[in-house]
Structure formats: structure tokens, C-alpha cells
Amino acid sequence: MTDAALATRSAFVAACREAIGDAHVLTDAHDTEPFLTDWRRRYQGAACAVLRPGTTEEVAALVRLANTHRVALVPQGGNTGLAGGATPDASGAQAVISLARLNRVRALDPHNNTITVEAGVVLAEVQRRARDAERLFPLSLAAEGSCTIGGNLATNAGGTGVLRYGNARELCLGLEVVTPQGEIWDGLRGLRKDNTGYDLRDLYIGAEGTLGIITAAVMKLHPQPAARVTALAALASPHAALDFLALAQRTAGPLLTGFELMSDFCLRLVGKHFPQLRYPFEQSHPQIVLLELSDSESEEHARTLFEQMMETALEQGLVDDAVVAENLSQSRAFWDLREHIPLAQAEEGLNIKHDIAVPISSIGAFIEETDAAIAQAVPGARMVTFGHLGDGNLHYNVQAPEGGDAKAFLAQHQTMLNRIVYDSVDRHHGSISAEHGLGQLKIDEAAHYKSSVEVRLMQTLKAALDPLSLMNPGKVLR
Questions:
Q1: What's this model's pTM, rounded to 2 decimal places?
Q2: pLDDT 10s digits, 134-157
Q3: Cβ atoms of 52 and 60 closer than 8 Å
Q4: Which overall architecture, per CATH, does domain 105-223 show?
């Protein structure tokens, strides 16, 4: 870095200290280290400072200073992302702007069924505040104890409730955003109907901080269900799971809130590394579905509906076996099986992860075709396939062959296997990123699979809103 560049960075950091206070501008390596590495430890960056504003006005002031000194900003929430979208580059010229101190719940309106929260509020806290008001905030994912609403919106997070409630975009009614010029757009209107021009809210959701910084949001709440009934069903194939999903939707309609697919190998892996989570059936079955109904009437009503559905599924040969949770503790144990799959994968060793979506009707064919292609390319590769079957989102991961060198496996095969998987996704008219975002991990892959028209439209939006390219450069778009 030249002397002039160093002087510019020093002037910027000094101005930031004056704007938000010395204590909230971190430059010491010990203090900044947690902000510079992504959750998977795949990306390690550097920064001239980590900035921790406490209000929207302070965020705006920092963005204006970034414009003056031409310093790029990397917004960060709970730093739980899986695609490197909140990690600075290695130059040391960028600044991380952490939204963790914007952690206030501004309002909860039970009649409007909304909660207005700042970007740094942790997802689990939003859920808790909703419960205290006898409401439900249905966004739920494994990182909910540390991820933040701002990050959830920046990546358009999905999770286990998308089938009934939609992803983060569907749960958001309004935003407050600091623009790349340091202006504040107050769109916190909490309206279900507002047909007064371009939908700016949807523009910022899923943009990963590349078009502006989300500082607050109005999120939808729902009535708390009177009862939840959870079950595990054993099936012969993903095709049978699709037929079972269709039956469940016909029988339960909007009461069906979860429909998670897990392969036999997924649960065997969980049992290997977490023996307390035992395999739920006496015999092995190729596929397991975890499904849940949420009923506003009563547990008796939900169980009766569930029993009718399972009886039909067994009669039609869609399901080979099933077990229904008898209490909340057993329901939690079922969900623990699902949620421990990524942890078991990590214990098993390095692996190649894919967060993909295809039309629900294509899931069976996608799994069969892609499994076969991978088996031919790398004999012995182990498929860890699980995900949100009800909305077409699969975590389609590849583990090294048993006893193999996982690091060598990644080095030798990752590029090829990514191409096999993504080409198959493309043939089935799917997406290479369903809920994790593009970040820096999939930026080149996205450009490869998107049409030139789509890429140019995105580039036009970026150039119009962020002409200096100071908002999270190197993410989503080159």
C-alpha cells in the first residue's frame, strides 16, 4: 500500500473515531480477528478497521465518511454466513461495519401482527419477543442463536418454515436502509398493501449489502399455533417422498409447516458422531421425512388429521413406516436429528457443500441423475442429501470416500464435482444458491449460469445505486 493510501486510511479511521467514539472503532488485531474470518473458516480477510455504530444515524455518518475517503465497507451481522459474503478481502483497505450494536426492538404491534427490529437483533430474540406477545415469528434456522435479522434479510434466509410462511422476503413488510451515499431511506411502513411505485424493499433483500445497508425492518408475526404434531416417516425413494408431500398438502393444507427430507446416510452419520441421537427405525430405509403440522384448533384435531394422513400414506404404499412424537421432548429429539446433520458432516471431515433449489417436481430425478454422475466421476464418494423438500431446497453435499484423505479429495475433485452438480441444477431449471446467498463463494458460478441479460441488469442496478462501488465490493457481482 502506498504512503498516500496509508494516509487516506489513517484519516478515515481518525474521522470514524470522532464520529462514533474511540471504543467503537477497532484496529487492534486481537479485537478485529473475530470479524475477519467467515463462519466456515474458508475466507480470511483484513481490514483497516472494524466499525461498530450504535444508531442508524451513526451508520449514515460512517457511510458518508467512506464516500469522502473512498473506503469500501463490508456490512456484517452475526457473521454466520456460509458463502463469505460478510468477510473483507485481504487488502486491508476495506472496513467492516458491524451492525451488532443496532440491537433494539423498536416496536411490537399485536393488532398489526408486526415487530419492528434493528438489524443487529439476534433471530432467537425476535422469536422470544414474539412468544412473549403470544405471537409466532416463524423464521427458524440452525444459527438462530447468533445470526441477526439484518443478515437474514441480506441473504433472504430460508430455514425450516418456508413451506408455510415463506422465506425472509415474505416475512418482511418494510425496511430502513442507509444508501451508498449515506442517506437514510425510511420504509418502515408495516403495510400489506402499498402499490406506490417500485418495490425498493425487495431490491435490498437478498442483495448482501451490495446496494445499501439494512438498519431496521418491520417483520410479520403470526398467531401462535395451539398445537404442533411432529412425525418421522420412512420411504423407499425421493419419488415416494414427493407423492407423500402431495398427499400431506391435500390432507393438511396450510397446517403443514415442515417437510424435511433426509437420506439414510445422513442419519447414520449423525448416529456415528452423536450416539445419543439414535436411528429412529428398527430397519434401514433409503429416505426419511420429518414433517410437522401446526394447528390453530387443538392437539386432538391435529393428531386426528395426522393419523388419517398416515393411514392413507401406508395404504397407498407411499410410506413404509412412521413414528409420531408423543410429546414435546420427542418432537425436539426428531428435530435434533435433522439439525445435527451439518454437525455430523463437520465431524466426519471436510466436504463439498451445495445449497441448491430445483422445482419440487424435479427433486427425485435430480437426485438420481446427479448421484449417478458423481458415483461415476468419483467412485466411493458419499452423498449427504437433506433439506427442505417442501420448497425444493436441498443441501446436496459430497463427503470423501470412507477412509480417504478429505483435504486431498477437495483439492482434486471440488471444481469437477461443482460443475457436475451445477450443470444438473441448470438442466432442471434450478438455482445454485437457495438460501445461503452468493457472497464471494459462488460469484463466478452465478455469472456462468445466469443469462447475459440478467447479469447486465444486475450490473446496471449496482452502478446506478453504488457508482463508487463502496458497498461490499467483490460480492454477488464482479
A1: 0.93
A2: 999 999 998 899 999 999 999 999
A3: no
A4: 2-Layer Sandwich (3.30)
